[in-house]
From TrEMBL:
<dbReference type="InterPro" id="IPR031319">
    <property type="entry name" value="A-amylase_C"/>
</dbReference>
<keyword id="KW-0119">Carbohydrate metabolism</keyword>
<keyword id="KW-1015">Disulfide bond</keyword>
<comment type="similarity">
    <text>Belongs to the glycosyl hydrolase 13 family.</text>
</comment>
<keyword id="KW-0732">Signal</keyword>
<feature type="domain" description="Glycosyl hydrolase family 13 catalytic">
    <location>
        <begin position="26"/>
        <end position="410"/>
    </location>
</feature>
<keyword id="KW-0378">Hydrolase</keyword>
<dbReference type="GO" id="GO:0046872">
    <property type="term" value="F:metal ion binding"/>
</dbReference>
<dbReference type="Pfam" id="PF02806">
    <property type="entry name" value="Alpha-amylase_C"/>
</dbReference>
<feature type="signal peptide">
    <location>
        <begin position="1"/>
        <end position="15"/>
    </location>
</feature>
<dbReference type="InterPro" id="IPR017853">
    <property type="entry name" value="GH"/>
</dbReference>
<keyword id="KW-0873">Pyrrolidone carboxylic acid</keyword>
<keyword id="KW-0479">Metal-binding</keyword>
<keyword id="KW-0326">Glycosidase</keyword>
<keyword id="KW-0868">Chloride</keyword>
<keyword id="KW-0106">Calcium</keyword>
<dbReference type="GO" id="GO:0004556">
    <property type="term" value="F:alpha-amylase activity"/>
</dbReference>
Length: 508
């Protein structure tokens, strides 16, 4: 009885902070703009066998159709109704995806856009992904239904201009988006009903879009109405995983700590700082990463959702600026993602993108709006090439060997302490995770050559960055760990990927 009480207490405390991934799966991937049919296949053919814990999907609810510019990705952040009906697919396809992914142990997290509906300038008509009628002029969304009473126009008659005014940030319109009155029980219930439909289908949690633009207490009121997770796949009493999009780089009225009670928060300092370090801007060097995490002023590890880039800042939207690393800077990007996945701080999300025709004018990409690969607006299939990469302009960073193998590394070292840090005072660093894994980086302009204490048992290990361990053979480099736990590492500064990672399961 005592044990039961204690266990349920721990379960309760962990609750909305727990990603609800299957045991031993420690990272999720954002399959930005993918179709549900492709995600279902990806769960079965790739994510489950490679140890991914789950997928963040693009908003599944009906959105406005924007034709000027032509079908931008950001139209999906302008809801018209809560029908599951978008370019990614319909409700049947969504259900099939959730079922098939859960059946192979891969969770689905929904991007919930509940702060607002479409833009105030969205006009009237049926230009929406399911053809639902709406009228942005008089705030009429009959398919929900919402009417003028359900919006914050009374409290605020304009846009957010001043991020130092918390009332404005939460009650006014974010780039013109019609702001929902979440203090009203009708709005809270309507939003919760939408989320509960998704929970009942089997999703494991939510990214709360624009959380900073909602009052923490209003979010809590919505969360308190949510069902427990579907017991077909989750144990009785499991709560949905919640991570809130709160951009807090410091210096604004709203602090991400205000949201800790509701769930985790996105730590935007993480990618901005890591990008600065790997790029060696502002005098930063990798040696300074020794106290990475809370030591850098980040939120507590068990409240953090971390990532190198997201769908906004990989194209200049949102926060982070020019320091953010993306697939366009592949060599540095792989190092950054590798560092993130090796380091114990936070719950990690890997980005998976599509390619678009960038066009920089005065330092700004004027094509930052371009939507997913498509034929006349219809999202293209994610095809798989013979070499396991993706076709049709899907980048599939999560399939890059270096990234995929570091997801496996993170699973293997899960629960192990950060250990055996070494640095050369510059940009050559190394660290271990107890006796389960070790990683070495050379981001200096000269070779690395050092014998380091790894903490690993003696043996020959395959480097999982330059290759794979296949049966009893390394397709890439090998590392010999002696009986004293020490190993010699040599990394050229011109190596294709100037880092090496070994772990318990890459041992021959
Ligand atoms: C335009 C004018 C406005 C005018 C309005 C009138 O610019 O001045 O008032 O019309 O209707 C798009 C356009 C924007 C347009 C707006 C409304 O870019 O020009 O306003 O639609 O029609 C994404 C994009 C936005 C896009 C939005 C909705 O990034 O550009 O706006 O989708 O389509 C802050 C927030 C943070 C946010 C981040 C981008 O704190 O919460 O900015 N991040 C999340 C999502 C992001 C999304 C939203 C929030 C909104 O990650 O992808 O914005 O849901 O930091
Ligand atoms: Ca708001």
């Amino acid at each position: 009885m005592k044990f039961f009480l204690l266990a349920s207490l721990i379960g309760f405390c962990w609750a909305q902070y727990d990603p609800q991934t299957q045991y031993g799966r420690t990272a999720i991937v954002h399959l930005f703009e993918w179709r549900w049919v492709d995600i279902a296949k990806e769960c079965e053919r790739y994510l489950a066998p490679k140890g991914f814990g789950g997928v963040q999907v693009s908003p599944p609810n009906e959105n406005i159709v924007v034709n000027n510019p032509s079908r931008p990705w950001w139209e999906r952040y302008q809801p018209i109704s809560y029908k599951i009906c978008t370019r990614s697919g319909n409700e049947d396809e969504f259900k099939d995806m959730v079922t098939r992914c859960n059946n192979v142990g891969v969770r689905i997290y929904v991007d919930a856009v509940i702060n607002h509906m479409c833009g105030a300038g969205g006009g009237a008509g049926t230009s929406s992904t399911c053809g639902s009628y709406y009228n942005a002029n008089n705030r009429d969304f009959p398919s929900v239904p919402y009417s003028g009473w359900d919006f914050n126009d009374g409290k605020c008659d304009g846009e957010i201009y001043n991020y130092n005014d918390a009332n404005q940030v939460r009650n006014c319109r974010l780039t013109g988006l019609l702001d929902l009155a979440l203090e009203k029980d009708y709005v809270r219930t309507t939003v919760a009903n939408y989320m509960n439909r998704l929970i009942d289908i089997g999703v494991a949690g939510f990214r709360l879009d624009a959380a900073k633009h909602m009052w923490p207490g209003d979010i809590k009121a919505v969360l308190d109405k949510l069902h427990n997770l579907n017991t077909r796949w989750f144990s009785q009493g499991s709560r949905p995983f919640i991570f809130q999009e709160v951009i807090d780089l410091g210096g604004e009225a709203i602090k991400s700590s205000e949201y800790f009670g509701n769930g985790r928060v996105t730590e935007f300092k993480y990618g901005a700082k890591l990008g600065t370090v790997i790029r060696k801007w502002n005098g930063e060097k990798m040696a300074y990463l020794k106290n990475w995490g809370e030591g850098w002023g980040f939120v507590p590890s068990d409240r953090a959702l971390v990532f190198v880039d997201n769908h906004d800042n990989q194209r200049g939207h949102g926060a982070g600026g020019a320091s953010i690393l993306t697939f366009w800077d592949a060599r540095m990007y792989k190092m950054a993602v590798g560092f993130m996945l090796a380091h114990p701080y936070g719950f990690t999300r890997v980005m998976s993108s599509y390619r678009w025709a960038r066009n920089f004018q005065d330092g700004k990409d004027v094509n930052d709006w371009i939507g997913p690969p498509n034929n006349n607006g219809v999202t293209k299939e994610v095809t798989i090439n013979p070499d396991t990469t993706c076709g049709n302009d899907w980048v599939c960073e999560h399939r890059w060997r270096q990234i995929r193998n570091m997801v496996a590394f993170r699973n293997v070292v899960s629960g192990q302490p950060f250990s055996n840090w070494w640095d050369n005072g510059s940009n050559q660093v190394a660290f271990g995770r107890g006796n389960r894994g070790f990683i070495v980086f050379n981001n200096d302009d000269w070779a690395l050559s050092a014998t380091l204490q790894t903490g690993l048992p003696a043996g020959t290990y395959c480097d999982v960055i330059s290759g794979d361990k296949i049966n009893d053979y390394c397709t890439g480099a090998k590392v010999n760990v002696g009986s004293d736990g020490k190993a010699y590492f040599s990394i050229s500064n011109s190596a294709e990927d100037p880092f090496i990672a070994i772990h318990a399961e890459s041992k021959l």
